[in-house]
Amino acid sequence: MRIVLIFSVTLLTILYGGSLRAQPWESADPASTGWSADGLKQAQTYAASLKPTAVMVVQDGKVIAAWGDISRKVNVASIRKSLLSALYGIAISEGRIKLGSTLAELGIDDKPLALTDAEKHATVRDLLMARSGIYHPAAYETVDMRRNRPGRGSKQPGSFWWYNNWDFNALGTIYRQQTGEDIFHSFAQRIAAPIGMEDFSARDGRYVAERQSKHSAYPFSLSARDAARFGQLFLNAGRWGDKQVIPAAWVRESTTAYSRTERGSMGYGYLWWTLNPKVFGPCAALASGYGGQAIAIVPSKRLVVVQIVDTAQNAKGMRTSHFINLLQRLAAAAP
Fold first, then answer.
1. pTM of the model
2. Partner of 133 for a Cys bridge, out of 155, 227, 255, 258, CB 3.0 to 4.6 A?
3. The domain that contains 64 carries what CATH number?
4. Sign of the C-alpha dihedral, residues 234, 271, 102, 173?
């Protein structure tokens, strides 16, 4: 009976992604660690005015402050792309995906207007940088994405940055095709379990298909406390305890700016935004999603800041610029 029980628990962990090593966060007293009490209070007041579902502030791997329901799981929108980037880092290090592979070599196409030969010259790396030059309709697009999409064939692969859901969704197809793994089970086993996420299950992801494209979107739901673990993993250069979960070189490469963007001083790496180094110091980066979803890492302050917003409760959500303002206030208050 004992053997059957152990097997059943293990099987459930494999199938559903529940971590048997979920680890609660440790807390630290802000005053004793050198935080400005006034600065932290002002940041909390500012955050409260914007009505997020939860905010977590972590420094040196310990919770400095947490507001709202940090265990509530919310669709984190385009943060999904940074989560997938982490899986790519693992798959590339294992030789299962190659950055230089073209879409032609991978057999990637679309409907109802097939990709052109020129578009099929785009590489995996081009898609990770949002530089594919493929402006085909895509699933899970916003109205602005559809309205502002460049014309088909107007840019050559690799030559132009544009925030493009086609690239991001096709990367999901390529990941599943080349690894033979489901994205959500893969994330649960390869990332969530090793870093001790408390809430995430493979059932917290779903595929969204739309008739205009064969490539599905893959939204995730995360709690703030699990999102903070993901941020801490990147702040730790992909390491958790004695395990290198994501290659350190990939963390560095994916949070390096390869493109300037329409967001002013923000750049874009491999499915990660990069933050202004003059404001936040070197290597600061952001996983960002519609409505105010955010995971920020600020290495110069050894800081992770997470915000999630349930748009079912706060229909207007929050602008990215509001989160950047909050992040500046917290960085200023941090020792």
1. 0.92
2. 155
3. 3.40.710.10
4. positive
